[in-house]
Every structure is written in structure tokens, then in C-alpha cells.
Amino acid sequence: MTRVLMKGAEAVGEAAIKAGCRHFFGYPITPQNEIPEYMSRRLPQVGGTYVQGESEVASINMLFGCAGAGVRVMTSSSSPGISLMQEGISYIAGAELPVVVINMVRGGPGLGGIQPAQSDYFQATRGGGHGDYYTMVLAPSTVQEAVELVMDAFDLADKYRNPVLVLGDGIIGQMMEPVEFPEREPALVDKPWATTGCKGREPNIVKSLLLDPYELEEHNRKLQQKYERMKREDVRVETVDLDGAEVVLCAYGTTSRVCRTAMERLREKGVKVGLVRPITLFPFPEKTIQSLDPKKVKFILTVEMSLGQMVQDVKLYTEGRIPVHFFGRTGGVVPTPQEVVREVLKRLGKEVEK
Amino acid sequence: MSVPVEVIFKRPEALRDRPTHYCPGCPHGIAHRLVAEALDDLGLRERAVGVAPVGCSVLAYNYFNCDFQEAAHGRAPALATGIKRGRPDTIVFTYQGDGDLASIGMAEIIHAANRGEKITVVFINNAIYGMTGGQMAPTTLVGQKTTTSPYGRDPEQIGWPIRMAELLSTLVAPVYVTRQALYTPQLVRKARKALHTAFRLQAEGKGFTFVELLSSCPTGWGMTPVEALEWGKEKMMAYFPLGEFKKPEAEEGGKK
Amino acid sequence: MTSTSVIFAGFGGQGVLMAGKLLAEAGLLEGKNVAWIPSYGPEMRGGTANCTVVLSDEIVGSPIVPDPDHIVVLNRPSLDKFEPAMKPGGHCVVNSALIDRKVERTDILPTYVEGNTIATEIENPRGLNIVMLGAFVKKSGLVSLDSVKEALHHVFSGAKERFYEGNLKALEKGAEAV
Ligand SMILES: Cc1ncc(C[n+]2csc(CCOP(=O)(O)OP(=O)(O)O)c2C)c(N)n1
Ligand code: SF4
Question: Tens digit of pLDDT per residue, chain A (354 long)?
Fold first, then answer.
């Protein structure tokens, strides 16, 4: 297949269709409207169904029902809408259903703005709603990777019977880059638990209510085992030039690209710099962080479009062995490579040019 | 401009002297002016608290010269309830689009109306989501193409356009429910009268008042402002009849 | 060339997003890595619009470029905004039919194109963006004119086929003008 130039949002929609998703429920919000718009156009062409819900609350509950019926299903939204979906996501995690949720993050809190941000990291990686649960979180940094991760998201959701969140931002959604769609058949699995009508079997019940505390505790332990399994089997991370690095940048999604450009300039200045780019934010690539050598790495600089969220995880897993610093812009401001370069040089005690 | 701007005499006190961010020919500006004139006429500006929606009029707080709060998408009637209950002396109004009021905020509007909250709701029905770039609204007409109904609204798939004024008038509590339009100077004059009535009834402590204003969205509809007014008059008014659906008995010519 | 960035800027409706997209398509046809990103948000409504195109032999780093290598500006506010931001040594292609001032910086390479006039002459006033693209491509040599022609063919196919000839002409006229 050839590479075609495609907008991130539309590529995400097409990837879902390639992954066998024929059902989409959502509610408009900037900056991701091109996803529902694409789905409203494309799904009818492939025998699928697009429904604009009356709200995000309704849309996520449409996913709840559809996933419970054993059907691949997706929604997409942006920060304020994702907040409204948290109730449903908690129920879906409780009921152990596979769904895919896209969040093209924008600046908050509240109505905030519409420019790209990464300030939903806490919400995404800590479950987001009530109860003791996690969603898997995938963070693409290019349109091509968004395509691959969305396709994988459906498989991972089925594998774990758990919501999978794809965390992008306004840039990933709006940017056009060349993409190539992997030729692969959707790996559809049997869903014997689904509510398809009980002919020839005992009725299936999809629910999250467990009134007996011992039973609910048991259920929660089972959920935790799933999360532990995710940590063993499905952590993804990209590392760049970690060998011999004296400075390690840590960034995901769009900011990792800013860091790549910054790294080129730092290398020209003789700084040995590496990058850790988490691709799964939950499960977090803790081992990669733990394996950094305190004798060689002077410090880690976490770069985010927030005022410091992922940096808490980086600190957690360095366990105080390596100094962890933070640089971020927020509210929809994208850090520039120059700013990152300056921050690194400053931390190294080197001359900083204007 | 060919928009019915017969009302340019002077800026009402309840409006600020500021350029708005609305597209050329967008009736939001006229609707703002009508609300402000009603507040002025009744001497209510200094008691008024507006609630801005999420939609093109999210910045209404910049244009009105009275206290304002900004709500989450669809929740304006709930905020208004809180304001009015907390400060019964204030004159509280929401100003909401069709996505805000009739889609995500359907629960809030129905229940505020059903409780008979003593507030005024100004409902701008332009049959589309203007702010987010022209997606389908609950009031989008059958067959109307939008960015999320690219093949035209299909009632089999997504139901029929919701007639909010009629819907709310089936409730017992509301005292005044009307639908007006902003397509010609004559219609604008009637709309102004309706807003006046609504605010007066609120000031008299009568109960929940609701003024739906049929509007247009040249940008979202992909038309010139003039075409949009024509289309509104022809298509919108055919499906959404104008009239007073509920009115206190004492009101002149009123039926309950 | 490791990585080159171009900003196309003008009024909403002048077609700057399309001009940028064509450059990105042409880069892709030449086997480069490319990224195209528009400004988005209320800015779009009636106001200014711009897009950034990055072409690179390697992975495209940050798609948001505060200091572009080159700019193509179709109106005055865009020149005022982006001229000071440019890296030294780049091309600054100006639609002099609408922009009433000269480039002020001496460390960049100005090119003046009577964009609207040319577009009107060939009876394709909406082809202004393509005229400007033609001028920029000729001047910068960032991609070949043939690649842009191929990209044009690609973008204006099917239902949009009828716009192909007119835009091809606009591209050629733009290139001839500089
Ligand atoms: C929870 C949430 N969901 C979605 C949005 C995005 N959004 C902003 S305005 C809007 C709809 C606007 O349409 P309407 O209410 O009809 O007003 P108009 O812009 O046409 O005046 C939407 C969906 C949001 N801000 N918050
Ligand atoms: S998009 Fe529509 S509703 Fe919004 S300001 Fe423009 S014309 Fe008015």
C-alpha cells in the first residue's frame, strides 16, 4: 500500500473502521469534530451505524450497551466531554467491557480553551471516575502511530475486556501526515458473555453491581490482576540514544516531537541527550525509568503540555536515585524546542544564549 | 447589511459598546439587543444576572452590561435555578442555543421548567451547532445537510426536529411559552414584545418564562445572510410555527 | 536538508491551507517525510488562517514551528506577524497585489508577486493561492514544479477535476512570474 496524506482525526476514524469497528456514538466538540464527521460519512458506506448522542453522558452509555452486546465500538471527544464520560467509563470498567475512547486533549480546567494540551494525564492514568480501576492509555506521537494504536486499541480492549483510551491532542487530530494502513484482518474474538439473546444458553448479565462486600472485593482483586498483566505484557515505550546519555528527556505524544527537535540542537552543542517516550501511559514504562543509571544520568527532564503531571510518575519510578526536573507550558501553549534546549543548558550550568 | 436592523436608534444601556465576534449577518447580535432592550424598558438591568451557554454566544458576558455567569454546556437552567434560589430578588435569564438547550441540556431545561423556576429562558434556534463548525442539532430540519448529517437528516435514523416550545407547554408550571422569529423587521418587533412580556412576568414573580427565537446561521448553513433569512422564513417557520403556546389568563387575549 | 519549514498565511478563504497541502503532497511524492498543520479555532472565523508545512529527510520533529525557514504571505497582517519570526536566509514570498509594504528585514530573501493580478488575468481569481505556491516553489526549489503538478492532479481529481486545468495554469503563471 502507498502512503497517503491524511488528517490525524480522519486517519483515526479510518483505522477504527479497518479494525472492524462499525459503531460510533459521540457528541461534537472541538478539536476532534473531524472524527465524528468522518464516521458519519464513512460508516453508512460500510454498513455501519453512526449516532450523534444528545450528550457525552448518553454517548458513553450507548458504548456501554453496544459493547455489552459484544460489538466493537468507539467514541471520541475532547477534555470537557471526556469528563462527562467518566461515569460511564467507570461502569464499563466495572462491567469489564471492551470499548475504545479517543481523547483529543485541549486546555482546561472547565471550558478552558481549544488548543492542544496534555493536562488530562492524571484523569487518564488514574482511572478517571470513581472506583478502583484503570483504563489502558495509549499515546500516539504521529498520525501513523495513531492509526496503529487505534487498531491495536480494539485488540487490547478485547484482550483485557477493559476500556482503552487513546490520548492525543489537538495537534495529532489536526495535523496531516503520510499514513499507510497496515493490511490486517480485524482479530475478532468470541464474546460468550455478551447479551445477544439467551437461546440455547443461560442468560448473560452485564453489570457492575456487587452488593456483597466480599464478592466486590474479589471482583476488584480480579481487576487488579488484569492491570498487573497489562504491566507484564503490554508496556510500550520508545527510547532514543539512552546509551551514554547524561541528560534524559521524558515526554509523550506531541511534546516528544518537540524534544526530538531539541535533541538535535543539544547534540550540536555537545550535550549527550537521550529520550524516553512512553507509548503506554498506563501501564507506565516503569522498568525503563528504573533502569536509568544514576552514575551516568545527571538528571531527567520531563517535558509536558501541563504544569506537571507525568513528572509524578517519573519521580515515583526513579525512587529518588536521579534528580527529576520539569518543564512545561500549558493552557494550549506548545513548548518550543528552543525552550527545552535552554532549560537543559540551564540545568547543566552551561551558557544559555538568548 | 440586509439583516432587519431597524432597531439601531441607540445602544441599550444593558449592552456594552463593543464589537462582537459573531459572523457577518448573524442574528445573535439582534437577539442580544432585544434582550437588553427588554431589561432597559423594565428597569431591570441592575438586578439582572445572565447565564451564558456554551455555543457561539458563550462570550455573551462580554456584550451584556449586567452580571453574568458562564455555565457548562447545557447546564445554564441549573445555574439559573441556583442563582434565583440563592438571590430571589435578582432577574435571572439564560441565553441558550439549540445544541445547548435541546440536546445536552434537555434534562436541565425540562426540570427547570417543570419546577416553575422564576427565570426567563431565551432559546436561539438556528437548527445547527454554529460554534463547533456546523454539526447536526436536535432542531436540524429533515433532509438538512450538516457536517454530521452529510446525507441529510434522516428521521428514521435520528428522529424528528424537536419543537421545544410545544414540548415545554405541555408542562403545568411554565407561565409563558412562546416562539418568535428574527427573519424580518416585523417579526423582530414581535420578538421584542415577547421578551418584554417574559421579563415582566418574571419581575412580577409569576413563574417560568420561555422565549424561543427562530434564528439563522449563515456560516453553518453555507448561505449568505440574505439567503439564510429567506430560508429561515420559508423552511424554519414551516416546521416551527410561531405563536404563544402558554400565557397567563390575565394577559390580554391570553389562553391557558 | 534535514528539515525545512514553510508557513502559508492569509485571510480565511484565500486558500492558504490548500497551498500548504499541495506542497506537503509534492514532498510526499518525492519520498520526503512531511507534516502539515493548520491553525485552528475561532481564528478561522473570518480572520486569518495559516498552516505550517515541514519537509524532512528524517523523522519530522516538532510540527509547531515558531521560527519558519520560509513564509508565503497573502495579506498584510500575515507579513507583519511572520516576517519577524523567520529564520535568517529564507524566502519571503509576498502577495504584493494586496500588501502595500516592502519586506523590512535585510537578512531574508524577498520575492514580490502580483498574486491577485495574475490570478485575475488568467480568469481564476480563486487560484491566488496556487499562483503564490508556484512562485514559492520556483524560487525555493524545495520540491520540483513537476511534483506539485502531480500533487495538483491528485488533489483535483474526481468531482474536483474541473478545477485542475485552471489551477495548473495558475501554478505555471506563478512560477513564470519570478
Ligand atoms: C461537554 C461539552 N461537550 C461539547 C462541547 C462542544 N460544544 C461547544 S458549543 C456546542 C454546540 C453549540 O451549538 P448551539 O448550542 O446550537 O449554539 P450555536 O453555536 O449554534 O449558537 C458544542 C457541542 C462542550 N463545550 N462541552
Ligand atoms: S457560526 Fe452561525 S451562529 Fe455562530 S456566529 Fe457564525 S453565523 Fe452566528
Answer: 589 999 999 999 999 999 999 999 999 999 999 999 999 999 999 999 999 999 999 999 999 999 999 999 999 999 999 999 999 999 999 999 999 999 999 999 999 999 999 999 999 999 999 999 999 999 999 999 999 999 999 999 999 999 999 999 999 999 999 999 999 999 899 999 999 999 999 999 999 999 999 999 999 999 999 999 999 999 999 999 999 999 999 999 999 999 999 999 999 999 999 999 999 999 999 999 999 999 999 999 999 999 999 999 999 999 999 999 999 999 999 999 999 999 999 999 987 765
* H-helix segments, chain A: 8-18, 34-42, 56-68, 79-94, 121-125, 143-160, 170-174, 213-233, 253-268, 286-290, 310-318, 337-347
Chain C contact present for B21, CB below 8 A: yes
- Interface contact B222, partner C, CB < 8 A: no
- Residues of A with Cβ-Cβ distance to B72 under 8 angstroms: 80, 110-111
Q: Which atom of ligand 1 is nearest to the CA of A80?
A: 1
**Secondary structure element (H or E) that encloses residue A279, with its range:** none
The domain A238-348: what is its CATH number?
A: 3.40.50.920
- Tell me the CATH architecture of domain B28-249: 3-Layer(aba) Sandwich (3.40)
All three cell numbers of A160, joined, read 483485557
Domain boundaries, chain A: 4-233, 238-348
Cα distance between residue B213 and residue B217, in whole Å: 13
B56 lines ligand 1 (CB under 6 A): yes
**The domain defined by C3-176 carries CATH number 3.50.50.60:** no
A55–chain B nearest CA distance, Å: 5
Interface TM-score (ipTM) > 0.90: yes
Which of B108, B135, B144 is the best substitution to test chain A (most A C-beta atoms within 10 A)? B135
Q: What pTM did the predictor assign?
A: 0.94
C36–A5 C-beta distance less than 8 A: yes
In CATH terms, the superfamily for domain A4-233 is Thiamin diphosphate (ThDP)-binding fold, Pyr/PP domains (3.40.50.970)
Residue among A3, A175, A334 whose CB faces C35 most closely:
A175
What are the structural domain ranges in chain C?
Answer: 3-176
List B250's β-bridge partners, or say none: none
CA dihedral A51, A57, A63, A66 (to 10 degrees): -80
Please give the backbone phi and psi of residue C50, each rounded to the nearest 5 degrees, phi first.
-155, 160
Ligand 1 atom 13, closest CA: B129
- CA-nearest residue of chain A to B58? A111
